[in-house]
Amino acid sequence: MRKFDWDSLQAFLAIARAGRLTVAAQQMGIDHSTLSRRVASLEASIGVQLFERRSVGFLLTPEGERLMTDAEAMESLALRINARLGDPSVGLTGTVRVGTPEGFGTYFLAPRIAKLTAVHPDLEIELVANPRTFSLSKREADIAVTMTRPSQGRVYAHMLNDYSLGVYASREYLDSHAPIAAFQDIFNHPWIGYVEDLMWSAELDYLSQISTSLTPTVRISNVISQAAAVSGGVGIGVLPCFIARTEPSLIRILPDEIALTRSYWLVSHADSRDVARVKLLADFIRAECSTSGSFWAG
């Protein structure tokens, strides 16, 4: 049996996680033909087929599933060695990816990144602000901001902050529709909410917390588009106060009667949390959150 190298295993892991050759190649920063050759070389070296090539992408064979466990163990070991023995100054170069909910990433983190890049110009930051859960074990991100504390996996979680949410409508909408003076009045208006099967966290189920009788008329998959719909007069909806505050036309409805609170958590993987560039970004996010108390208030 011929020897295989660590580059081949990294290629294998990238394709296994991405499911598509072109996506994996982009993530690794290499040509897709090079990536394909590395995996073909790995399969030839160990004498088994690791992937089934289908129209939907690359699917792991049973042999590939077994190799995945060992390859991830080797990857974890390499990360730990790098964190322990690497030159700290070198750790502040390269790329670190943070996955966040779209509201946190867009309205809070993105405007503050310049503070970090000004001090560390060689550090490359990838901010993925999407309405989804990120798997750190699959290396979809180096750091993740979540709405709940993870209950499993080799991860560390740190509570960043609580934030307030309220019910909002546009000034134009309120001027042209029946008044909302009491709680019962909210049932006479169209609501904007989440697409139920695309609700990536149970913490997003705001309407049932207000009343189990509320059903959205318009369902939208992300909070930024929901805010735009509320601002455009489509109806009323629950929004984080830190987002609603950026749109002057929005007015909070019944703030004393309807007030919700959620939390953000910072999560890092046990194998990479001490890598210098990962730790730097995690510490930066924690520090920014700790000094921005009024940002999260109602």
UniProtKB/TrEMBL annotation:
**SUPFAM superfamilies in alphabetical order:** Periplasmic binding protein-like II (SSF53850), Winged helix' DNA-binding domain (SSF46785)
Q: Where is the HTH lysR-type domain?
A: 4-61
| InterPro entries reported in the protein's UniProt record | LysR-type_TF_proteobact-type (IPR058163), LysR_HTH_N (IPR000847), LysR_subst-bd (IPR005119), WH-like_DNA-bd_sf (IPR036388), WH_DNA-bd_sf (IPR036390)
What GO terms are given for molecular function?
DNA-binding transcription factor activity; sequence-specific DNA binding
Q: Which UniProt keywords apply?
A: DNA-binding, Transcription, Transcription regulation
Q: Gene3D superfamilies recorded for this chain?
A: 3.40.190.290, Winged helix-like DNA-binding domain superfamily/Winged helix DNA-binding domain
Identify one Pfam family in the record.
Answer: LysR_substrate
Offer one example of a GO biological process linked to this entry.
Answer: DNA-templated transcription
In the record, the note on similarity to other proteins reads: Belongs to the LysR transcriptional regulatory family.
PANTHER family named among the record's database cross-references: HTH-TYPE TRANSCRIPTIONAL REGULATOR, TRANSCRIPTIONAL REGULATORY PROTEIN
User: Could you tell me what this protein is called?
Assistant: LysR family transcriptional regulator
Species name for this entry? Caballeronia mineralivorans PML1(12)
The major lineage groups are:
Bacteria, Pseudomonadati, Pseudomonadota, Betaproteobacteria, Burkholderiales
